[in-house]
Amino acid sequence: MIDLEGIEYSQYECVKCMNSSASTSYVIAKEGYARGGSKRYKTVKQYMGCKLETNGYDFGFLNIEFHNQAIFVDEDEMQDFMEENIFPFKLLLEYQYLKKEFFRRFEELDKHWEIEKR
């Protein structure tokens, strides 16, 4: 888990995005991508990411790295790709989270009613 308040992670794109009002992050050129401790940094060319959120609550972050070759010409192209190909997957993840939370709360309500019946 990454500490969103930690100085050592403050330049990570996901941390910058999570600590801002933005819901997406794009890095068109590797030079703008914070170097992590991983060997894969050598091959990262472009990056995009988005918050996983529901009702104003952020519950995760989806990181996507493109390695070995730059795929997009500019940020507009990245945004189009995100909207057309990644957002449907993002919405599915958010829906699954909502469904999980709904049934968890429903079980709690059911347990509460069982206690009161006794």
State mean pLDDT (0 to 100 scale).
89
**What is the overall shape?**
elongated
Measured distance between first and last alpha carbons: 42 Å
Q: Which secondary-structure class do the elements indicate?
A: alpha+beta
How much strand?
15-25%
In total, how many beta strands? Answer: 3
Offer a concise description of the structure.
By secondary structure, this protein is an alpha+beta fold. It is built from two helices and three strands; from the N terminus they run H-E-E-E-H.
Overall description:
The chain has 118 residues and is an alpha+beta fold. Helices cover 42% and strands 22% of the residues. The chain is built from two helices and three strands; from the N terminus they run H-E-E-E-H. The protein has a three-stranded antiparallel β-sheet. A hairpin with a 2-residue loop joins strand 2 (44-54) and strand 3 (57-67). The longest helix has 43 residues, at 75-117. The mean pLDDT is 89.
SSE map:
Elements lengths: L12 H6 L5 E4 L16 E11 L2 E11 L7 H43 L1
Antiparallel strand pairs: 1-2, 2-3
Name some characteristics of this structure:
118 residues, alpha+beta, three-stranded antiparallel β-sheet, 2 helices, 3 strands, elongated
